[in-house]
Amino acid sequence: MSSLYDRHLAVCPDWLALYYKKPLEITHGEGRHVWDADGRRYLDFFGGILTTMTAHALPEVTKAVAEQAGRIIHSSTLYLNRPMVELAERIAALSGIPDARVFFTTSGTEANDTALLLATAYRRSNQILAMRNSYHGRSFSAVSITGNNAWSPTSLSPLQTLYVHGGVRTRGPYAHLGDAEFVAACVADLEDLLGHTRTPAALIAEPIQGVGGFTSPPDGLYAEFRRVLDRHGVLWISDEVQTGWGRSGEHFWGWQAHGRNGPPDILTFAKGVGNGMSIGGVVARADVMNCLDANSISTFGGSPVTMAAGLANLSYLLEHDLQGNARRVGGLLIERLRAIGAGSEHVREVRGRGLMIGIELVRPGTDEADPQAAAAVLEAAREGGLLIGKGGGHNTSVLRIAPPLSLTIPEAEEGAEILAEALRSVA
User: Looking at the DSSP assignment, which residues form a beta bridge with residue 284?
Assistant: First the structure.
């Protein structure tokens, strides 16, 4: 019988990316650990791309899923759905958006696609402002606002997209400026851009860029952008697919680091809220959400089973203060990684917040991205029993570290030591 990898290659697209020279089959998990088909255990510092937010096989979630599946698995949004309404009520209250309405999807891509539909319909404009180095999903519309060419396979687009400075603090034409001057320069660039175009529908931005390598601007940048956007009537969409639910430790939502001029008009979410179940969604104030003048439904968005999982997972996160744990354990982990990085000539920067940490690698003695080193560290970390991710807008040279938010201090220390050894192996 051919291997699972051979079977994968025979039936799946060539562009469906797999990690590792010898791809890994994960068979089960518990807590912050997973096991492969050979029975080897790994400490998971990537959580299914920031999706296993609380823990693998969390009993509260698996119990909720089993109980709901035993009652009814599917009904669609054509019928009243108690778990969906209950989860929508909780998310609306947590969102910070006044008079909020919530629409559930099955992914972050679909959530961002819906947000673009709402914004363009509300503003009667197909122009969108997006950030350089951004990623918002793989649909036709989401690809068209992705400012990262490694994840943008076509230039054809239903939208006219204009890219703004500011998502990357330590690279680009303003990197040499202090924080206040950096913000001022980015705002001036936005003002200038708006002077050369028809008024856009919205700015979509990740408070911390995920696929882009966990980069972020100084706190308050999007608040200053909001001041300009409001003057022009342009909506602000905060893409919280990776930054939401307290992962940054300091805030429950990423936008709150930029909230001086109020919450976003639209907020998108996915990944962590389902802890692996397929949940995405959009929160918007009522006049924006209700602007569509045609019928719409969702066949699978708001599924009773996924909503039950989301309710149980969100309750666990709040009751166990996992945001506080991300702040405490993440703070220790990032300082440990910075100490390790200071001893490696490959490490350009260790950055991030909470349990959302990036390690950018360069060729020694230069500022040139080193994707080969990132791939080598990824492999070495796996050999050491640690799973991490990689990304970055500069040739995929950033190691991405995003464990479940229940990570313990001993596990953080263990993962840091494995990473230190992996970095030493490519010296």
Answer: 101, 266
